[in-house]
Structure formats: structure tokens, C-alpha cells
Amino acid sequence: MYKIFQGLTAEEMIRKLPEDQIRHCVNVEILVGKLVEWLPISKETFPNHIYLNFSRAAYYHDIGKVCVPDYILNKIDALTWEEYDIVRRHPVYGEELLNFCMKNGSSGIPPCLLPLTKQAALYHHEWWNGKGYPFGIRERKIPYVARVTSICDAYDAMVSNRPYHRAYSHEYACEEVRRGAGTQFDPALAKVFLEHETEISHIVGEICTYSTDKLIIEKKRLLYSRQN
Ligand SMILES: [Fe+2]
Fold it and tell me: Which stretches of the chain drop beneath a pLDDT of 50?
């Protein structure tokens, strides 16, 4: 199944997604980068500053969607059960695809970043209460990078235009994150995210005005503006 992707880098695969999905990957990368800056992460928990790679890993979280037909990703009407089932497989597709790339030496992702990238891809739809997918694992069994990605993924999916819904407001999305704290989301991470509501609103207000090309050019500045 993955042979059609032979020789492609992970980046080239992401660029095969519909444009709104590419934007989503970049937005999540930026938001994860910001959330990581705000988290009280100790160097003991994450030696070698591995958390600094969370945002890059999060960029690839939906790479498995390249295995989902575009007609499903772009569908305006409600998905059938069969289509929904295919969409729900994208975390597993993502991890398998990254393994396939790795075996073929073509991922373009540095080896030190690959374990985090696979965790973000495979576990970003798991829920804190165990009601997510694909495995239904819960709480701290869900890798940290996936818990961080999960909040930014859900938030961005709500505030962005999608084929099947118009963008919801920042306030609505924050309220949903608040409601999901302790059920869908790690409550400690959701708390930090919501403490920075205003900053998040500014970031999203800025990135939504950019074309996809400009967004990709500007993302480094947005990610590293605090350090510069
Ligand atoms: Fe996803």
C-alpha cells in the first residue's frame, strides 16, 4: 500500500495533502511551538531539550491522511460509516508510513526526531479519559508530545474553515478546550493553553491572513520570535 510513496520525503507527502490540510499542519506546528514555550517543562523530564522538537514532530501529525482519498478529505456532506472508518485509520497509516520511509532511508526527518514524530502521528487522537482512538489508551500512557499536539490540533480544526464547516470563533474553540479538559485533553496542558488565550488569538489572527506559501515562509519567524 505504501509503495506509491516510495522515494518521497515526509515533507513531500505532506505537500500532497489538500491545501487546507497543509495549512492545518503548519498551524499546529506553530501552536505546539508556542505551547511548549509556556509549559513548565523540566530538563530532568526531557533531557537533551527534546521538547524543543515537539513542534517539528507535530507538523507531521496528520501525514497518514495522504492514505485517505481526497474525495473523503474534501467531502462537504457527512461521512458514511465506511468513510469515517478510513479517516480514523490515519494515525496508524501515519506511523506505518514513517516506518516505511525510515526503512527506505527517505523520510528526510533526522533520526533523533523520528520517535517523537511517530508518537505525534500515532497518538494525537487519543483522549485523556481513554475514549479516543486508535487504541483507547489514557492519561500519561499517551505520549506527552501527542497530548500537546492533541489540544493544538483540535483548536486549529475548530478555528479553520473546513469543507464540512465554517470556522468557529476563537472564543468557541477555547470554550471547547475548557470543556474537554480532563476528558479529551490533559487538564494541566489545557490550563496552560487557556492561560494564553489572548496570545493564541493574536497568532491565529495573523496566520489566517497569510497565503499558504507565505505561511510556510513566515512560520520560522512565528515559531522563534521570542528567542530572537
Ligand atoms: Fe489527525
Answer: 227-228
